[in-house]
Amino acid sequence: MEGTAFSQNRTDNHDGPRDLVRNYSNFKTSAAPSRFLLCRDGSWDDVSDDAFELLRAGFVSGRAALEVSMDGSSYLFDFMRMVRIEYETGHQKPVAWIDVNGRCFFPTTDESSNSSQKVEIEIKIDTCLKKNPLKRKTISNPPPPPPPPILPPSSDVTQREEWGESFIETANPPKKPRWTYLEPVSGGDSAYALVSDLFLDEMRRFYPVITITSISKCSHTDAPGTARLRAFQLQLALTRSARGSANVRFAWHGTSARGVDSIVEHGFGRPNRNSHGTGVYLSPPRSPYCSSLLSEVDENGQRYLLLCRVIMGTSERVEAGSSQFHPSSDEYDSGVDDLANPRWYIIWSTHMNTHILPEYVVSFKSATPDEVCSPRPMNSSNRTSAATMMSFLRLFAEIKKSIPAAGFRTLENLYKEYKAGKFGKAVLIRHIRSIAGDKLLTSTIQGVSRRK
Questions:
Q1: pTM confidence score
Q2: Region 167-194: what's the mean pLDDT?
Q3: Which domain holds residue 437?
Q4: What mean pLDDT, rounded, does the chain reach?
Q5: I need a labelling partner for 429 at 20 to 30 A (CA). Which of 50, 101, 297, 312 fits?
Q6: Where found in the cell (predicted)?
Q7: Residue 144 reports pLDDT greater than 70
Q8: How far is CA 9 from CA 66, 164, 191, in A?
C-alpha cells in the first residue's frame, strides 16, 4: 500500500459552494482523526488499518489530499471535499472522520436533522466505549451536518503566496449569469470580498476610478468542464510525483468577453505572442494590473480578468525577446520573466489545458488612459505635452538604456509591425507597458517634461 501527498484540494465538482466552505471548516478545525469512514451503499464503514495510518499521517501533516493504493486500485482521498475518487473509473464515495476528541465530521446530506443527530449520538457513544478506535463499525444511517461554514480569514490567505492550498468558494448565486456555466457571486459573500480585495489592492494604484461590475465562479459542471477539471487533477498528480511539488498558484489572465466565453466553454485555444515567448500569459495573484493590459474593452465599456489556478511545477527564466514556445528541456514545466520576482507566468501551448484551471471571472470598468506615459489620469494640460507631443521613437530612445537589449529589440520589432498596420496603437501601448513597466514610463515622461 502506497500513499502520495498532494498540495491541492479540489476534486469533486458536484459540491455546492456552501458545502465546500463547510468542508473546509471541517478540515481546518478537526483534531487528529481516530477513525476514517467510507459511505458504501448507504452505510458508513471504517477503512482498513493500513489505509487509516496513511490517511491519518497525511491529514496531521496538513495535506489537503492524499493518493492511496489499496485492494489493487488507486484512490484520491480529498479531505477538503470529503470524498474518495477512484482514478481508473472516476467513481466517488463520501468520506467522513471522527477526531480524537470524539467530534464527528461528515459531508452534508439532504437528510433530516433528526436522523443526523441520532447518528452523531450513536457514533460518539461508540467512540467512547471502544478502546480500539480502529475497530470496524458499520453505521447504517445518514451522517450529521458539520459545523457552520467558515472561510479562511484574509490574513491566512495573504500568508500563502502560492494560493494553491487556499480556497475560495461562493454562496447562493443572486442572478442569472452572463455566460453559461458561470455562477454569479453575491456582493455580500466572503468569496466576493476576498477576490475583490485581491483585485483592487494593486489596481487602485493605477486606476483611481475603477469599479467591479461582477464576479462569477466557474462551475465546471458541464461535460467539457468536468473533463478539464479531471485533466487538471491528473496533471497535478503527475507533476507532484515527478517534481516533488506541483507548485500550484493562483494567477490572473486578461482577455476579451469573447475570450472568456471561449475559455469557459472550450478551454484555452490560442496562446499570446508577447515579450517572453509564445504561451498563455498570467500574472501573479497580487499583480492583476499586468494582465489587465491584455484585456479588451467590450461594447459596454467592461473588461475581464480570469482568476485561475495554475500548475507551475518547475519554472525556467525566459529572456525578453525570446521566441520560445515550449519548455527548453524535460526539467521544466513553465516559464517566468524573473525567477525571484516574476511579473509573468508563462504556460506553453502544449500545457495550457492541463496546467490552467479558470476559477473566477472579474468584470470591471475603469478610467483607462490612452497615454503611454502613465497609467494614472493626468490633467488636460499634461495630456497634450506628455502623450501627444512625445513620439514613440523619442520614448524608445529615452528608455533604451533602462531595459534589457532583448527587450528593446522586441520594442523595435513591435513598432515596425505597428507602422505596417498589423495592429493598432492600443495594442502597441499594451506591449510597451508590459516590457518597460509603468514606473519607468512615468519617470521617463516626467523627466522629459522637466527638461522642456
A1: 0.49
A2: 65
A3: 380-451
A4: 74
A5: 312
A6: Nucleus
A7: no
A8: 9, 8, 17
Domains: count for the chain: 3
Q: Indicate if 125 and 183 belong to the same structural domain.
A: no
* Predicted confidence (pLDDT) at residue 10 exceeds the cutoff of 90: no
Spell out the SS3 assignment of 72-126: CEEEEEECCCCEEEECCCCCEEEEEEEECCCCEECCCCCCCHHHHHHHHHHHHHH
Cell readout for 52 is 487509516
Alpha helices in 147-302 (DSSP H): 154-158, 190-206, 223-243, 257-266, 288-292
Return the DSSP state at 163.
Answer: B
Question: Three cell numbers at 212?
Answer: 467591479
Residues 100 and 220 in one domain: no
Identify the three-state secondary structure at position 375.
Answer: coil
State residue 150 phi and psi, 5-degree precision: -135, 125
Alpha-carbon distances, residue 412 vs 205, 344, 400, 409, 418 (angstroms): 29, 21, 10, 5, 10
In a shared domain, residues 175 and 301: yes
Q: How far apart are CA 66 and CA 262, in angstroms?
A: 33
Residue type, 140: S
Q: Does residue 134 sit within a domain? A: no
Residues 338 and 389 in one domain: no
